[in-house]
Design brief:
The protein has five helices and five strands. It is α+β, with helices and mostly antiparallel strands and about 130 residues long. The protein has one domain. Helix 1 packs parallel to helix 5. The chain starts with 6 loop residues before the first strand and ends in a 7-residue tail after the last helix.
């Protein structure tokens, strides 16, 4: 019998974190209703901030570089047009970081003013896609 080490760590409306084949995989569905609405607001603030997966990657990396650089050190991202995925090696320490990042994404989308302020005040510093 074949077994896998797949397990769900966090499931949210638009963010999911799971362990799978030795990796921690964080999925952010940026075309779900709330992230899509926030993306439109960010695009109204700065026309370069059209929030596809690539620009979410840029924005989240910029945010992490200031607020949680330890997370950036242990992850790789893989954006697509309609989603953003981050990968971590499956270790207990990285699981804590990946979970923290997943919760950060939810908090930033739900409390959208932080990202709106960031784009309004420092959007010209962000290297948009």
């Amino acid at each position: 019998m074949e077994t896998t080490n797949e397990r769900e760590i966090l499931t949210h409306e638009y963010v999911r974190l799971r362990a799978w084949e030795g990796s921690l995989v964080l999925y952010f569905e940026n075309e779900a209703a709330k992230p899509l609405a926030l993306g439109r607001k960010l695009g109204e603030i700065d026309e370069n901030a059209y929030m596809n997966g690539y620009n979410w990657d840029v924005l989240l990396s910029h945010y992490l570089s200031e607020h949680a650089p330890d997370i950036l050190e242990c992850m790789e991202s893989d954006p697509e047009a309609g989603s953003y995925v981050a990968y971590f090696e499956d270790t207990p320490e990285n699981e804590r970081k990946a979970l923290r990042f997943a919760e950060m994404i939810v908090a930033l989308v739900e409390g959208e003013e932080e990202l709106c302020r960031l784009v309004r005040e420092r959007g010209d510093e962000i290297e948009w896609d």
